[in-house]
Amino acid sequence: MSKRKLSRQQRWRIEKIQAERAARADKQAVRETESLEAGEYGPEVAGRVIAHFGRTLDIQSANATLHRCHVRANLDSLVTGDRVIWREAQDGSGVIVARDSRDNVLERPDPYHQLKPVAANIDQILIVFAVEPAPFANLIDRYLVAAEATGITPALVLNKIDLLPEDGGELGALLTHYERLGYAVVRATTQRDDGLDALHERLTDRTSVFVGQSGVGKSSLIDRLLPDEALRIGALSEDSRKGTHTTTTARLYALPGGGELIDSPGIREFGLVHLDEQQVAEGFIEFRDLLGHCRFRDCRHRNEPGCALIDAVERGSVSQQRFASYRRILESLTPR
Ligand code: GDP
Ligand code: ZN
């Protein structure tokens, strides 16, 4: 609330502007209803949002053709990956009349720290890290916790395995631990022809997004996976460096070998969003069966007697390293 009181005249002017705006939206909705009823559009069919440009969107129809569409005035905001119902006009363009329910939605904070949806209906978040630059101590856990909070399955991609020492080094041991926790781990390199075989397999029949620290090779991987689209992606990231508004929009690509990729510079930088303590704890999948079994219902798993998590660490069923990582993430979130 503004401290300063609005004068009566100011208030009147604001109300007038709002009323005019509402009337305009109503009028547009009426016009749309009329033209929809007049049969200027074909029957309702299913489609998928593959790119988003403000009020217009590109829709892919069931037979894989692309259509530039606008959205009915009364429809919620749509994002790339949304399944929609739309009607085609004679000229091939169309109007989106409804949005299907979402399996999940990936959100990121806008400049005002409000979470905004950026893409929907994603099967997996591929967390990319590399032999070089090596991930700092709990980087992977931070990404996993953030991914788990979205409800989208994460998988780990270790890139640049061409730089890995023969015995697998420390990273090799680290990955074995994540595999034991139940995470899929894929090893990749853009430096060998067969370097992406395991990744191709992981991408088939699924809709994926890549996230990870800068320098780990996300652009290189995507260039190799989408050779024909490489130029366009390059252009996108160049624009985003200039801070162009439209480039934060995500785009859905069909992979030549099967599967889909949703990509935008904004998604690649996906970080730890504003999570609460409960979400952080639940982001450690091996804690889930233990949560709720502490002696105190409001246990914060610090040094309380009868803490199920601390007991599990002492028994060795939860690793010291993951528990330390959990504590470190909590500390980084607590505003002081
Ligand atoms: P991004 O910031 O995650 O998009 O990373 P880039 O794709 O820009 O890659 C960063 C650097 O790593 C570039 O110099 C790439 O050439 C290099 N790179 C990417 N993949 C590999 C790989 O598999 N092996 C090696 N040795 N270098 C790679
Ligand atoms: Zn506890």
Q: Short summary of the structure?
A:
The protein has ten helices and 13 strands.
What features would you describe in this structure?
With 336 residues, the protein is an alpha/beta fold. It has three domains: 8-99, OB fold (Dihydrolipoamide Acetyltransferase, E2P) (Beta Barrel); 105-263, Rossmann fold; 277-333, Probable gtpase engc, domain 3 (Ribonucleotide Reductase Protein R1, domain 1). It is built from ten helices and 13 strands. It has helices at residues 8-37, 139-150, 169-181, 197-203, 218-225, 230-241, 265-268, 277-282, 308-315, 320-333, and strands at 45-53, 56-61, 66-71, 83-88, 94-99, 105-109, 115-120, 124-130, 153-159, 185-187, 207-211, 251-254, 260-263. Strands 10-9-8-11-13-12 form a six-stranded mixed sheet, sandwiched between helices. The protein has a five-stranded mixed beta barrel with strand order 1-2-3-5-4. The protein has a two-stranded antiparallel ribbon with strand order 6-7. Strand 1 and strand 2 (56-61) form a beta hairpin. Helix 5 (218-225) runs antiparallel to helix 6 (230-241). Residues 233-247 have low confidence and may be disordered. The structure holds guanosine-5'-diphosphate (GDP) and zinc ion. Residues 294, 299, 301, 304, 307-309 line the site of zinc ion.
